[in-house]
Amino acid sequence: MSGDIGRLIRLGQWLNGDGFANYEHAFLMIDDDTLVEAEPGGARRAPLAEYGATRIRWSSGRIELTDEQREAVIAAAHRYLRVPYSFLDYAALAAHRFHLPGSPLLKGYVASTRHMICSQLVDQCYQDAGVHLFSDGRWPGYVTPADLDRRIG
User: Fold this and answer.
1) I want to staple 86 with a disulfide (CB 3.0 to 4.6 A). Which of 41, 64, 115, 122 is the partner?
2) In the predicted model, what is the mean pLDDT of residues 24-39?
3) Which of the pair, 78 or 51, is modelled with greater confidence?
4) What percent of the chain has pLDDT over 70?
């Protein structure tokens, strides 16, 4: 992501222990030219063409899905359209990373608001389809774009 938002996300990932990762955003492709992504204005459908020449890392072939699972991920993405974005999720990530007191309370609050950051949206859609991208049982709110990059790496 470019601009101030991208720089803030990069800094947040660094504070979370991800270093200065190469990717600050994640989205789900729902057909050949349409994606669903979480943004500060809420989760939305958008044409892939909006990303132009932006470097994109694809998970195709790296996450094995049946046709039914793929359809369930896409259906989940549609259900999360307009779900608000949450910068507070970054505070929950940092609190979890640094084992701060109150971290579970913050997680509970963030979960109850139904707000999501981009990587959380992606992981939650997979989980809704019965596919767990991470074997450590982490909450989707603790997933960063760098985590997804490592998962498909």
Assistant:
1) 115
2) 92
3) 78
4) 84
- Residue 50 CB neighbours (<10 A): 9
Q: What is the CATH number of the domain that holds 42?
A: 3.90.1720
Structural domain that includes position 104 = 3-152
Whether the model pTM is above 0.90? no
Cβ neighbors of 69 (< 8 A, separation 6 or more) are 129, 130, 131
Beta strands in the chain (DSSP E): 27-29, 34-37, 44-47
Query: How many domains is the chain partitioned into structurally?
Result: 1
* Tokens 């985590």 belong to residue: 147
Long-range contacts of 82-85 (CB under 8 A, 24+ apart): 82/42, 82/43, 82/44, 83/38, 83/42, 83/43, 83/114, 83/115, 83/116, 83/121, 84/42, 84/113, 84/114, 84/115, 84/116, 85/38, 85/39, 85/40, 85/41, 85/42, 85/43, 85/115, 85/116, 85/117
Compute the distance between CA of residue 32 and CA of residue 34 in angstroms, rounded to an integer. Answer: 6
- Is the predicted pLDDT of residue 83 greater than 90, yes or no? yes
Alpha-carbon span 66 to 83, nearest angstrom: 27
